[in-house]
Amino acid sequence: MHHRSISRTVLIFASACSLGIGIADATAAAEFAGSVVTQTNVTNAAGALGGFATSEGGYAIDPFFPAYPQTTPTPVLATVASGGALTLEFASPVTLSSQTYLGIYSSVGLSNTVTTMGSQPATSPLSAPGSIASDFGQISLSTPSYARISVSADGTHFVPLNGGLPILFDNPTNAYTDVSDTVSLGGTTFVDPVPGTHLAAATPFTGNISDFAGQTESQILRTLNGSAGGTWLNLGGIASSSINYVKYVKFSVPAGESAYINAVAISDPALPVPEPAALTLLAIPAILGLYRRRRASLDCISR
């Protein structure tokens, strides 16, 4: 589904780090899920932990190149299969307020309608903005995840969101604010989206997929306004005497459906803002992993 040529991703990204170019913009007051509590019918549960994946196979994740299910060389997503469930824990409890949001980064790619070589990709307009049926028509690279979500303070008593009805994770993820694609091969694939130097922030994106209708990539970035996107749910309305803070989140997938989870975050102004230096260190394992895969490819070619 994703056909790419060998790129210079690792060399460019590693050089940027060695020259002291910081990984900026990722200063949101957000905490990512850090451990798995329980899992049923789940593949690669660890894929849902930590920050959202910024690249896969050496290519930057953006609205036209989402994280996608795979088993090699290293799976990025956690996959919760039909009838499965996954419970995650945050390192610290977050007191609920009207500004507390739960964010889910999943696997969503917007379809491209521009086929002119060298031009920016653009999404197709929606015939009925906001309707699920038309939203599905705009997604071509992956299928939106669908799951029931509940949160808990103690890991035992869970409060369902959305009245217990399944929630669709249909907003795309954009990892970098300084990456752009151009259309090639009739709009089916794109020029390598090389990872940039400015990470998008894990800030709540309160829009929806219809906001991207008919937009070019530059317009999509303006709509996101520095956010990495994702589907964000306001938790302020569930505060009560029985739950006034959140430490656990549970995903339950209905029969016949599936959920692909890239990362899960909770955001609130009261959370501490991470230091830029620490964010750069967090990126190093991903860089080394890309280097090893690149080196392995080169070794195979030399043989």
**Beta-strand level of the residues, as a percent range?**
25-35%
How would you sum up the major sheet? 7 strands, antiparallel
Number of extended strands = 15
Distance between the termini: 28 Å
Radius of gyration: 19 Å
Mean pLDDT: 75
Q: What low-confidence regions span 5 or more consecutive residues with pLDDT below 50?
A: 1-28, 127-140, 276-303
Number of helices: 4
User: What is the 3D form?
Assistant: globular
How would you describe the oligomerization state of the chains in this entry? single chain
Order of helices and strands: HEEEEEEHEEEEEHEEEEH
User: Could you estimate the helical fraction of the residues in percent?
Assistant: 10-25%
Q: Give the structural class.
A: alpha+beta
Task: Give a short overview.
By secondary structure, this protein is α+β, with helices and mostly antiparallel strands. It has helices spanning 9-18, 132-137, 217-224, 276-302; strands at 30-32, 35-43, 55-56, 59-60, 78-95, 101-105, 145-152, 158-160, 167-169, 183-184, 189-190, 231-234, 245-252, 259-261, 263-267.
